[in-house]
Amino acid sequence: MSQEELQKIKQKNYAEAIRYMEKAKKTLEKAGLDEDNYYNSCRKVRRACKKAHHGVLIALDTYLLLNGMEKPKVSKKVDDYICQIGKIDKQLCKDLDNLYHTLYMLGCHDGIQSARIVEIGFDEAYEVIDKIKPTQTV
Q1: Annotated domain spans of the chain
Q2: pLDDT digits over 6-31, tens only?
Q3: Domain 3-132 adopts which CATH fold?
């Protein structure tokens, strides 16, 4: 693929991943926070974290493509991503493992209501998504 094609892929998929993150943030806003900084709706936290997780998967698929590797097949298991990404970037591999536990396990599955933990998961998600951030062309 040419540099121009790669840049277009980055732009398209980065925008898509960010769109999912924005949807996730809106869903979290609907969950409402109490005075102790906990979300009121476990269900909405789960939904928001699933949307954010989907945005991360788009970024990871793109990251692998840009580095000449295949994305995991249909299953989309985190272990498959960790194995592939570990061949390219050890630090990202560690970050992905942390992200999986905070955003996916605690957020999607457990519906953790602590705004602080959800915020950490979202921050980690943005860090992964920024790995495919396109360079600005003038």
Answers
A1: 3-132
A2: 899 999 999 999 999 999 999 999 99
A3: Four Helix Bundle (Hemerythrin (Met), subunit A) (1.20.120)
